[in-house]
Amino acid sequence: MTFMGYQRSNGTVGIRNHVLILPTVSCSTETARIIAGQVKGAVTFQNQQGCGQMGADAKRTIDILIALGSHPNISGVVVVGLGCETAQPHKVAEEIAKSGKPVKTTVIQEEGGTLGAITKGIRYATEMALAASMEEKVPCDVSELIVALECGGSDPTSGVASNPSMGYASDLLVAAGGTTILSETTEFIGAEHVLAARAADEEVANDIMNIVHRLEKSTKERGEDLRGGNPSPGNIAGGITTIEEKSLGCINKGGSSPAVEVVEYGEKPRRKGLVIMDSPGFDIDSIVGMVAGGAQMCVFTTGLGTPVGNGLVPVIKLTGNSMTYEKMKDNIDINAGVILDGGKTVEEVGQEVYDEMLRVANGKTTKAEIFGFSEFGVWRCGTSV
Length: 385
What we know:
alpha/beta, Rossmann fold, 2 domains, seven-stranded parallel β-sheet, four-stranded parallel β-sheet, 13 helices, 14 strands, 39% helix
């Protein structure tokens, strides 16, 4: 089975053809926003990091920025920096250029201020947008797809309707040779042994247990308890009572396929199939990690409803709650609540989700894309200085 995508020079395949205006630091975010607003086909995001960080925390942010600039859905990149930040714009641009993409840099301090940086940035972005408009889609095998699996604003319908439907769609993609990424380590707790039992081998099983134990240990060392924030107040109000209950529902997103490997936050999968990524339960940071890992789209289940999107990839929103779907039709793409209403089976809705994934890969826009939502955050692993 094939879809029409953009074949990149480094062998990856994109399903969108954006020009990314990439701010390396919070101080250049508004400048990047103005540039992107003037060029059709350009996207950006609100980067609140890039400086005041050190060590592994600084490296993570820089690595994520480079990975996003190198993403297969991106045709070209304009890096927008202030000049004195930790995430040095010219170095970020140099690393992105290794992906084969056209990259230009505009630095506020070097251009004599905001107006000079904006003018240069718009000129660069316009040239890239014109080039992108001439790029043609080609048939690509479905095995080239990497899909991020996310859940947020959960209620009991997530675990019994929308997550199992997503899991069925995940199994279909894996069976076709594609890759899905299951994240949110905090939402494996209490069910990690169930997930580990599905590992492709003992090494992967141990890796699954290790990322959970590592998270619990680091949290305790800070004098905190994960159960103080998960389930969230909204989850509890919606009817989820324990972290274990939430976790059992969360891992349903991965279907029944064996987990073939565990990757670190933002790391690209090395194997095809169901991949586990160590990430937080916070939706935005988790999605950004999977996108940095190369996911070209995200399927996001929600019980209570959420508008969250991502500037680089389309986000398909799926709810297991028909009342939420009726209230938030502007944001939700698919209603899996029909399962609980008695109208369809998990398998039937799962097939609908898979079919929608292929339509979106072929160019159909999601509701989050129509609104232009582009929430952004990087999972911090250190303190600010």
